[in-house]
Write a structure and sequence with these properties.
mainly alpha; Arc Repressor Mutant, subunit A; globular
């Protein structure tokens, strides 16, 4: 009887671990979908496809408050889609080109392959070539 009880415990523990891993996977997916569900976050991802940008540069292109842009960047970062790297007084945001999760890779590939013909995206891509952080961040 003792051996049977241990076997049941192990099975229950294994089932618990499996359920937790599934929940984590669903939570990760939810974060990715949430990040992709906003027009401005999609615009940010398309801009970061071209080059790393700081908050000031993104704010200038999107014409949003810096706090709003920071919130968007936080959501994208939490989903694992972007990374921020400190560079002097700036934090440069860039796409996470080497994610450890296939779902993130798939999401970034999808973004890379879509929206190229959208007029807003085209306008944003032209705008980022003209932004100068040394000017706009000092306003």
């Amino acid at each position: 009887m003792r051996g049977y009880d241990k076997g049941v415990e192990i099975k229950i523990e294994y089932l618990y671990i499996s359920v937790n891993n599934e929940m984590m996977s669903i939570q990760k997916q939810e974060k990715i979908f949430k990040a992709l569900s906003d027009k401005n976050r999609l615009r940010i991802l398309k801009m970061l496809q071209r080059k790393p940008l700081c908050v000031c540069e993104i704010t200038d292109v999107l014409q949003l408050a810096a706090s709003t842009v920071s919130q968007h960047l936080s959501i994208l970062s939490e989903a694992g889609l972007i990374l921020g790297e400190k560079d002097g007084k700036w934090i440069n945001y860039r796409l996470n080109l080497q994610p450890d999760d296939a779902a993130i890779s798939s999401a970034l590939l999808y973004i890379q392959m879509t929206l190229e013909n959208d007029k807003t995206i085209q306008k944003d891509l032209i705008s980022i070539s003209a932004v100068d952080r040394n000017i706009i961040c000092c306003k």
